[in-house]
Design a protein that fits this description.
The complex is a heterodimer. Chain A is mainly beta. Chain A contains no helices and ten strands. In chain A, a hairpin with an 8-residue loop joins strand 8 and strand 9. Chain B is built from no helices and eleven strands. The chains are: A mainly beta, B mainly beta. At the A-B interface, strand 4, strand 5 and strand 9 of A face strand 4, strand 5 and strand 10 of B.
Chain lengths: 114, 111
Amino acid sequence: GAGVSQSPSNKVTEKGKDVELRCDPISGHTALYWYRQSLGQGLEFLIYFQGNSAPDKSGLPSDRFSAERTGGSVSTLTIQRTQQEDSAVYLCASSSGQGDYEQYFGPGTRLTVT
Amino acid sequence: GQNIDQPTEMTATEGAIVQINCTYQTSGFNGLFWYQQHAGEAPTFLSYNVLDGLEEKGRFSSFLSRSKGYSYLLLKELQMKDSASYLCAVRFYNQGGKLIFGQGTELSVKP
């Protein structure tokens, strides 16, 4: 079946602009995660949605970052007033639940802020 | 903190065996994952350990010692296509399903 998809695959934006990144998880997966990967670095947790529970936003680096998940499926990560340090690959993952379930990653969105 | 430590890079020869180590803070441990990530691609799941011991899956094996806060990924009969970054990630209690990742180990397999 279809895996996790993300759009756009690449995004170049000017400093100060807002951007929206989209994630379509695997159908039926209740958990959805956003991570950020800067060049040569490991993945940094941003935010996590599990079913109808309140999201875990503990990884969001500033109040310029927000995310929502509509209808328990598609998620959008929004970065307002982008800064150059926001340049990274933004990865979305989904899993079947909260237990010992592997996370399936999407291909990521490469964001470049100029 | 919840530092996940692994070597930055390793080099090995085609056909050989390589062991990639990962250490983590033991408090609240609730499972350890290994992922493989080729350049420019998404991470793909390799293994999951929550109990002590060795999990074998083909050429790849993963070991866990919970008391020592230590895991390793063992790759046998290395192939050129195994050149990739290997990510160690840990889940902790009271943090839901999110994973804390190490910085990754860049493995280069030489002929």
